[in-house]
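hiii, so i know i said id send this last week but things got crazy w the move. better late than never?? heres the sequnce for the chain we talked about at the cafe, plus the structure i predicted for it. fair warning i was half asleep when i ran it
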Amino acid sequence: MARLDEADLAALHRAYRWSYLGGLTLCVFWPLMLQLIFTRFIAPGQNPPDGVVKQLGYTFTGLVLLSVAFVTWRWGRIREGFQAQDSGRRSGILAREILFYSALFEVSCFFGLAYWALAGMEGLRFARSFIVLTSIMFFCFVPRFDAWRRAAEGEI
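okay and structure toks below
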């Protein structure tokens, strides 16, 4: 286990701050804005939430769970090889991964909008659930700085 020097730690922290801020914007602030304004700009669908619409909702749920499984698997792979990367590349890898995870979780938000456009008021709670899941997944599955630091130092 190798300790990081101050310069590497500072570069890693700076990359983390900016990418985490981008992820917060994408996965927390944007869904909050959608919660407030999406009913005004997207016409509610008139389809009852059964049959094809219900099956599509199940498909959306499965895809959201698949994205969580993929992020968990990918973080494990990144964590294993993170220490072997040279210190100049670590910050870029960290930023790329956080923004990639955030973008992947943002897809849940678009599923919510699609469900709203299909099911309308009858499917409102499900549409909002997909939108809220974006923030929940971000806070639960995007690694914090301490996890990145430990990975850089070789702790797994």
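btw The two ends are 10 Å apart (CA to CA). thought thatd interest u
miss u guys!!
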